[in-house]
Every structure is written in C-alpha cells, then in structure tokens.
Fold these 2 entries.
Entry 1:
Amino acid sequence: MANVLDLRRRIRSVKNTRQITKAMKMVSAAKLRRAQQRAMAARPYAQMLASVLDSLVRRVDIYDPETGELRHPLLVARPEKRVAVVVVTGDKGFAGAFNINVLKAAQSFIDASESRQLEIDIEAVGRKGRDFLRRRFVSARLVEQEQPEHVQQARQRQARVEVTGDHPGILEKLSFDRIGRFGQELVTRYIAQDVDAVYMVFNEFQSVISQRIVVERILPIMEIGKHDIASATEMEAEERERMAGAARSSQVSLQSEDTREADEEARKFGTAQVDYIYEQPPRQLLAELLPRYVSTQLYHAMLESVAAEHAARMTAMDAATNNASDMIDSLTLIMNRVRQAAITKEIIEIVSGAAAI
Amino acid sequence: MAEATQNELRVRLVTPDQVFIDSTADAVELPSRSGYLEALYGHAPLLAELGAGEVRLHGGSVGEQRYFVAWGFVEVLPDRVTILAESVIKPDAINTAEAQQELERGQKMWNEAGEESKRYSEANRIIQEAEARIASAASSGK
C-alpha cells in the first residue's frame, strides 16, 4: 500500500493540473464570448450582400437572350470531375473531438466520392487539419515547365486525392482581407475550370447548444442566401448537455443573441420595391459582387469555426476540471484510510505490548 | 440607433466585421467607380459600386466625418444611405509610406504588364487605390 507521503504528493500534482485546466476553461470561455460577438457583428454585411445579390439576380436577366446561357461563370454548374474541398479545423488541440469530428466528415466525403472517380483537391485551413491531411494524402507537386516566354507551373497529378494548399496562421487573426484573397483564388480556379465545384467542411456554430458539422457547397452558386448543404452531422444529445453545463458554469449565454430585427433590416438592403438607378451596368455589379459573396461565406464559416473551437475547448476543459476534482476526492479518501490504518496499527502494537507485560 | 429627423439621411457604413457607423447626415459624398457623387435627402433610389476614395458625411448629429474606403457598394434610398465596404479607415490613420510603396509596386507592375490586359487592369487598380489613399491622407492635414 502506498504511503501517506506519496499520496499527498499525487494529490498536489492533480490539484496543479486542475488549476491549469480551470484556467484554460476560463480563457476559452472569454475567447468564445468574443468570437460569438464577432460572428454576430459580421452578420449584417453578409446578409446585406446576399440580399442585394438576390435582388440583382432577379432583376438582371442573367440568361443571355441569344444563346440562353448563364451570364456569369460562377452561376454555371458543371458535372463534377474534380472538386476542391476546404477543410476548416483549429490550430490547437485540447478541444475534445472538435478537430476529429471535422476531419471525420471530410474523410467520409472523400470516401463517398470514390465510386464517382472524383478527383479532390484539399485546401486545409487550421494546423491540426493540415497535419492530419498531409500525413494521409500526398501533397500536390508543382513542376516548372519551360515555355518559350515564361516559366509556367503545371501540376502533375499523382493521386486521386491531393492536398493543394494550406493556410497557416489564417485563423490566428481572422482578417477579411486575407480570406478575400483565398476566396478570390478559389473563384479563379473555378472560372478557369480547374475545379468543377468547391465544398467546405466546417463546424457550424449558431450557439453553444446548436452546432453541427456541415459539408457545404460554395461554388457554383446555386441559390443566393441559401446554404447548399451536402451533408450535416448534428451534435449528440449527450454532447450538447455537456456543452450546456460547461457554458453555464462559465457564464456564457446559451442562446444566440436576438438578431431578428437587425437581420430583417439587413434583408431589406437593395431590395426596396422601387426601380433603382444603376450607376454601373447591373451585369458589372453582379460580376464584382459574386466573388465577394464567396469570400463572405468563407469568412463566416471561419468565424463560426473559431467560435465552435473555443466552445469545444471550454467543454473539454470543464470535463477535465471535473475529473481532476473527482480524482482528488478519491485520492484523499485513500490517503485518509491509509493514515487511519497506520494509526490503528500503532495502537494495536502498544496495546498488545502493554498486555504482554 | 440614430433616429433621423426630418430631411436627414440615415447613414450606415457596414464592414465584414461590424456596423462601422450608424448615424445621420444632411449630405453624403460617395466615391463611386465613375466619379464622386453626392446624395441628399430625397435622392432617387440608386445602387452603385464604390472605388477607392473617401466617404464624406456632412451635417447631421455628429458634424463632418470622413472615411476612406477601398472598395464598396452603396444603396441610396430617399431617406437612407447604406454603404457596404470591405475595409474602412479614418484618413488620419492612413500609413502614407505604405501607400507610397504600394503605388510603386503598382507602377512597376504596370510597366511589366506587357501584353496582358488583365495585369494592366490589376496594376491600374493598385495604382488608383494607392493614389486615393495618399490623397486622402494629404487632405486630412498631415
């Protein structure tokens, strides 16, 4: 049996661990609150952009009267032969199953596409996802080809699934600027017919108790303002309960703020029942706005994913803190028992010694 | 939320991060792609794309205000103006040295563009934005 000193040492060590996990939980809770606010504050812009685009699309005849073709390449759907998948995970671990859940969804999307012989280009966002996907799939290799005028980079495809890019640090400080460039890159690839669709796998976050992992198609744009969800995994009831518990104990509100009024207001943007004067030709406006719409969706997904990551970490750390407390309790019990046993033993020795005299 | 009194425009400037301003003004100057335009109360409904330049608010509850936007989109209705802008910066916060560098980069690109019209337009865009940035910083009295 362990002696009292050893047990005391172990209790102290578990207590230290508990202090760390508790601090991490608090930090995550604070970060979650901030992330939630950011996601909230970003809504009017996204909503307004969507509604003005929606009304533009309805007003402008997007079909060419002569050929009957769609006028903007981003609205044209093609049969899918090669698709890009943006996988949004977190940069750090200690967040429970957060990263694994996203990667699982990505994996099942990739597996499901095998029968269709779909080529997949993975764009990894977040360090955890990048590390995992890099290990599992080959990285795309760019080969420089000497052409008469300039050096052109061409790709040699080696496998069905390849990792074509990662974006380190993009989640650390989310800026619309940077994500806009990423979005632009995807749009360019789509227009150049390098890829036939762009999907995004991420953790959608409405509030702490309303989250799901979704696979969303962001290109081509089928219907503006609607999320084109290819598949979604709701969180389990047990998980939700734990999330709710953790949120309550760290004073994070469970309900998302009431933004209906603001949303309603934003929805009216550019959709008044009047004839607008268009400063530029509507088609030109459309051409400028559509790529930005794609970037906004990316931005939004990343904001939500960051919030979800903090929520997941908060929950994981709450569970760790509780487990540490349980462990301390049981260790204390054992320690007391051991001490009591030692005292009892000593008394017996004294008593039997006295009896022998 | 600002309540607009009579003959005042309700002006909102919205960025991807937040609602940047929500106030009122008598007149708003807007840097549209095809030149500056000014919206007064009762303006006909208008949708326009904004280039790089300053959004200026005149009158209203807070007095004159100026903001530099790089790209934007505006909806003008008789009683309100809503601007969507990708980035908003106050003119006195503009980094002139950085803008100068950007301008040089744009000019270099313009010189090297050769036959490609796409790169020309990209270079032109960079030059325009940098020039507007410098002009905006200069007019703020630095």
Entry 2:
Amino acid sequence: MSDRRIRILLAKPGLDGHDRGARVLARCFRDAGFEVIYTGCHQTPEQIASAAVQEDVDVVGLSCLSGAHKYLFPQVAKLLQDEGAGDIMVIGGGIIPDQDMQALYEAGLKAIFTPGATLDSLVEWINTNVKPRA
Amino acid sequence: MFTKELLDKSSLLRKKWEDEVKKVVAKHADQKEEWSTVSSLNIKRIYGPEDIKDMDFEKDIAYPGQFPYLRGNQATGYRGKYWTFRMFSGMGTAVETNKRWHYLLTTGQTGLSTAFDFPTLMGYDTDSPKAKGECGKCGVAIDTIDDFRDLINGVPLDKITTSMTINPPATALWAMYCASAEQQGIPLNKIGGTIQNDMLKEFIAQKTLMCPPEPSVKLISDTIEFGTKYVPRWNTISISGYHIREAGATAVQELAFTLRDGMEYVEDAIRRKGLHVDEFAPRLSFFFNSHIDFFEEIAKLRAARRIWAKAMPERYGSKDPRSWWMRFHTQTAGCSLTAQQPYNNVVRTATEALAAVLGGTQSLHTNSLDEVLCLPSDHAVQIALRTQQLIAEETGVCNTIDPLAGSYFVEALTNEMEEKAWEYIHKIDDMGGMVAAIEKGFPQMEISDAAYKFQQQIDAKEKIMIGVNKYVEADEQIEIPLLEIDDSVEDEQLERLAAVKRKRDGRKVAECLNELAGACKKGENVMPYCIEAVKNYATVQEICDVYREVYGEYRDPGIY
C-alpha cells in the first residue's frame, strides 16, 4: 500500500461552460487531501485522455451539463483504453438522465453523480473505490 | 428622513420591544441563531426608522422617472406597459426553433429570445470536430445566413424585438440579422432587438470564450459604434449578471461585477471610439438574475438602478438622463431549481418572478419546471409564461409603482446592497479596471469562494433546498416528460451546411474574410465587413477563425 495521495484529473469535455460544479469539486477534493488537476473548460476527449496519462492520475472526473455526455464520456474512456491506460478510473457527473446511465456504465464509467450528491458522499466514494496506483 | 421627535419616540418603543424579545427568547429560543439571505447577508430581526434615518428622500428615493431612478425609469410604471414577456428558446434546427417561436407568439409572448447551441455560441460550425455531439442540444444551430433566414421566417422584424444570447460570435450573428432585415426591405434604423455581446462576464463566469479580454472588448466597442450610427433602436449589449450569479456569486457580487463590467464598456467606447457617453449609453441594457431570496433580489434590482444613475454623471460626465436609466431584463434563477420533486420549481420560479417585478424589471424570462433536466417541453414553457401573465394580470402587484418603497427593511437592504457593491467597484477601479481584475483572477476567485461556501452550507443543512436536503422523498422516481434532441439533427444540419458550401462562391467568401482580417489588423470597425461576409455565406466559424487568427485564442485557465 503506497502512501501516495490520490491524484484526480477534473475535466470539462466539450463546449459546455457550466463549470460551477467542477470548480466546487476541485476545491472540495483539494481540501479532502487529494492532488487535483483541473483542466478548465472546453477540453477535447483527446486532450483529457492525454492529460490523464501525462499527469499519471488515478481517476478522471468528467463534468458535462450540455447534454453531450453521451458522446463525450464514452469517448474519453475509449481513448484511455486505446492508450493502454484503461486502469485509470473514469467517473462523471452533470445533468445525466436516468435512461443514459446504462450506456455510460457499459462504456466503462465507474460512477455517475447527479444533482443532489453531497460533497462528503463524493469524497467517501473516491476514498472507498479509488486506490492510488503504484 | 424623520424628525428628531419621531426618532426619539421610535427609540423608546424599540427599547421596550427589545426587552420583550429578550424575555421571550429566554423561554423559547429562536429556531436558529443566524438568519441570513441565500447570499449569507445577515438580516436583523426587525428594521425601523433608525435604519434609514440618514436617507434623503429627494436624493435617495424620489418618484419614478426622477433621479436616482430607484423607483423606476418610467413615470407610469407597469400601468403604461407591463414588462416584456420574453421567453428564451431554441433547439435543434432553425426550422424547428422557428416553429416554437410562432407557437410562443400565439400564446401572448411579446418578445423573442434566442438560445443557440454550444457550437454556435463558441463560434464553431456544425462540421467542426469540436462540435461533435453538441449540435442543437442546448439551442438552435446556426452556421450560415441560410439558417438564420429560416430562424426568423415569418417574424415581422419591424414589430417584434428579438434578443440573441450570443457573445464571442455576436458580430457575425448580428450581421446576419442586419443583412436579413435589409433583404426583407426593412431599413436598419427600424429594427430593434438585443445581442448579449458581453464578453467580460464570459471570462468571469459563463466561459464561452474566443479571444483574450482586450480584443474582445474592442469587438464590443465596434458594435456599440455601429449601432449608434446605423441601428439606433438596437441594444448592442446586454451587460449580464445572470451568469455571474449562476456560477455561484452572491447577490452583491452579481450587482457589483455586472455594473463594473458596464463601466468598463463605457470607458472603452469613450476612449477607443471617441464617442460621447450620451451618444451610446441610452442603448446599454442589463440582464440580472432573480434568485430565491425574495427581498434580497428586490433590493438588488432597486440598488442597481440607483448606482447606475449616480455613476453615469459622476464618472463619465453624462448629461442625458436616458443614459442614467438602467434598463434590464431578468431571468429567474436556474441554479435555484432542483431535479428532485421538479414540480416545486413552479413555486420557486413564481416567487422569483414576483421579486423581479417588484424590483421593476422591464423584461422577464421565467424558467420552466423541467429546465434543470432538459430543454423545456411546450407544456412546461406554457406554465412558466402563464406565471408571468398571472403576476401581471391577477395578483394586483402592478396597480401601484414600487410598492415596497419606504419599507424600513427594503430601503435599508437596498442601501446595504449599494454600499457593498461600491466597495467592490472601487476595489476593481484600484486594480486598474475589470480587464485587469479578470487577468488577476479576482472576480473568478470571489465567485469560487462563494460557490464553495454555498455548497458546504447546503451539505450542512445551514441553507435549505426542499427535496435536496430537507423533505427528501426516498427513492424518488422523477417522472416528467423529457424533451430530447435527436442525434439526427446533427446529420440534418451537416447536410444543410454542406449544401450551402457547395452552392456559394468560394472565392468571394475568401475575399470577404481577407478583408475582415485586414480590418481587424488596422483596428477598423468589423461590422460592415461582417455583413458583407455573411451575405456571401461565410459561416459563423469562418468569421470567428479570422478573429482567433488575428487576435489570438483565449483558453480557460481553469481557476478554482
């Protein structure tokens, strides 16, 4: 068991600029003791996947409120697989209708958080489910 | 405001009341210790004459249509004319949105307001790789003037005003509107409407970004100059606090940053264009949020009018009272709505709309109950519009102007909003203005602080959102019809764009874009070049690419 801190890349894929959630989470995760890298808005899936690999993160958190998650989230997961970095966990959040969940899980996302999730519950989920990679 | 005799009397009575409160509280403690607004502004248990004793009726309150316009710009208030019922809409293709518009006009809506999809908002065409998955999702997709003509088909441009929520590509979309009007035989001086065209709040909050702040402000001054000369009934900017608030700002931050943004635009138009403030300031318009904290919002809107009325003559030597009028649109707060128990959103929106009306708004969008989940369905939009009509025509709140004036509490809170806003405004002045403050990340960090604090308050149940952290329904199944934009919209729009690109004169397009680039480099006004370019079927992205090339591209620094 390494004493490395959990490294998390928070990213806003696509053209959506609704970044309140992502920025609040960036602070929350920082305060929870994680190492946080926040990309800012308007990242392509390629940019996100390559940042995740370069920064050697344990988990990628995607936030999208524009309705384009159905394309963007699976694309990030796929690119990570393609780059041989399938062990980097991908989670997502935003305005995600229930009927889209199944497809996102099938595409490799490990968790989807929707409005109402508390900050504590997110930190707890990560502490339970993400282990710093060696 | 009051005679010494009255204040003495009040002080005596107040003392008696305070003693009584102490006794009661000793037996029955208050439900909670701190009572504050949604923005965490502390509110006292009671307000009395002593809280507003320093006000001067003539200087600080007066009557509607009189300086400092606290009580409204117009002497007749809503008796002369209700606010404009302006519902924001747009989805899928131009043809579909046009259908929605015609429907809205039959339901009694009095102005149109366009929501564009993300590629259009960011200055990308549907065929850009960056646009994939986004076409038509959050609004209507517009690539060329061909789409634009379908959008406004059958809308009488000389009678209905149309607002367009468009920022980095505002010059391109406005050019399409101007060119379409001319083609319909309507002269530019007869068309009215609004382009949002407020880039400073994009860097601060909304993040539809294209070029760095400095050239962004230059493009805005171009539109202000062009409008002043040729399109005098157009509002070339809607200086927006809405998005600042949605990003997590407090009411005071929304007020202060929005007004300071407005001042930055005034200063740039004077300095760069050599315009006199009174040539263009009467066409500046504003756009505020109406959040859930009823009195805080009313106070904010009243304070906004008074700050602007003071700032224009004091800071810029304005002599024309029309420049002192703060004219604004209001939208109820999307961020106050909940995905949980979504029908409660109707009540939230009604409360917020009522605050906007009591604050004297001139135009209003009411959010639909399902907007937290998807683009609104027809039925949800109808309830939202009916909410406005009901406030206007059933509740009686329009019978008299500014009914809350003179309330100890409302006037004291209005004063407090104003004082706190001026503190921020002066602080930003000291930083060298809003562009400089944005480059330092100042407003962004202030908003981040507020947003984080609010989320912590929600999690700790210090602030309540019904259905989220109180009166939660376990295992709630949200069963409301969701409007979904089919992915086939993207294919359809790609085909439309390809058809335009096939039929247009490519050489002519390149020539127009070249001339636009030349104008950018020489610092000329871009508007005439944009109009020529869109007439020749240059796309939104082609025009924006010229700006990115000449002025450089701005990327979100990801401040948190």
